[in-house]
Amino acid sequence: MKGTCLFPRLAIAFLFAGLLAMPLARAQSEAKPLAENPEVEARLQEISAELRCLVCQNETIAASNADLANDLRREIRAMILAGRTDREITDFMVTRYGDFILYRPRFTGKTLLLWLGPFLFLVIGAFALRGVLKRQRPADAPLSEAETQRLARLLGETPRSSAATTQGTPDA
Q1: Which helix (H) or strand (E) holds 16?
Q2: Domain covering 8-101, topology
Q3: pTM summary value
Q4: Which of 29, 46, 55, 127 has the most CB atoms at less than 10 Å from its CB?
Q5: Is 30 helix (H, G, I), strand (E, B) or coil?
Q6: Is the pLDDT of residue 31 over 60?
């Protein structure tokens, strides 16, 4: 065994251990239902899927495992059991935490720029692109006498006089 490297065996052992640990990590990341009533739990999932986790900010309350998300799910569950409607629960959360808690904000005066901003930037960008392209386009200036003769030579035609070209009637 002299001269053999231990590193490849060690790397394979760590890789194998990591692969074995992946299912355990996945099982811990899923939120466990706390309600005995499946209808309450389904309604909780539906409502919490529309609310943003204030800690994670890129996940819904339903998908987050943050302590605040767990507390909010518990609070929503209590409101459902108290008989509140989905709209009442959502309005309560918006009143308490602001429009930011909504994963899909409502179309109101406050969120007007949020909804119309991308279209506004698209229109501004289109006008800017149009202006740049218009500025780069060469002007349609008439050819000089020398350019007309050179063009005629290249095309193998007889040159026309510049007076006839500007009047629109070719010389015969």
Answers
A1: helix 7-29
A2: Helicase, Ruva Protein; domain 3 (1.10.8)
A3: 0.50
A4: 55
A5: coil
A6: no
